[in-house]
Amino acid sequence: MKILLGIIKVLGVLFLAILLLILILIVGSFNQFEPITQAYKIENAAFESTTFNELATREEISDGTATRPQYPVSYHSIKSGSGTVLAVRFYHDPSSAFDDEGFWKLTVWLPDFKEKTYDLFKDDSVIVFYTKGGSAWPRSMCASRLTSGTMKITDKEISINSSMDCWSKSEQINGQWEFEPYDIEDLDYWVGKKGAEHPYHETIIEAHR
Length: 209
Fold this sequence. Notes:
Blueprint: H1 2-29, E1 36-47, H2 58-63, E2 78-92, E3 102-110, E4 116-119, E5 127-134, E6 137-145, E7 150-153, E8 157-166, E9 169-178, E10 180-181, H3 200-203
Parallel strand pairs: 1-10
Antiparallel strand pairs: 1-2, 2-3, 3-5, 4-7, 5-6, 7-8, 8-9
């Protein structure tokens, strides 16, 4: 009889623990987090690489011979160089559920920083690269160099009106962001440091990892 009562107590505790976990997940799914957008102006900087349409294969990664990134987000890496980089970074964790975070990155290289409206179709002196996807799903990313639409640069802001193909659909890229100065020596993987061991470091803002 005592053994039976003991088993009942254990099962009761397990049932309560499972019920509590379910309640936490349900409440968490309604817990909304505000999106985070950051925009930076990085002087004396350039893209680490601009061969945007070339990605390393699994074989190259596994045998250590890769000379190109495995995922498009790594093309937002920044290095010291001639010119100015504007880096806009967006991250959204819509709930406390697992693996539903999303991100996008817009990186712009300007040979000379000046207030100007650029026609991205006609003016190839600037390089504009965009990536969007699920933070936990690197293979779901859409990425492209933007070569259509317009981009306006002022002393304090960047605005863009462009589009790209994303899984056979048109992805509209529109927005206006006020940027702040950023020292290239302070780069982290989220903003543009090269060499992340895992793409999560590049797709999830550091404070949320």
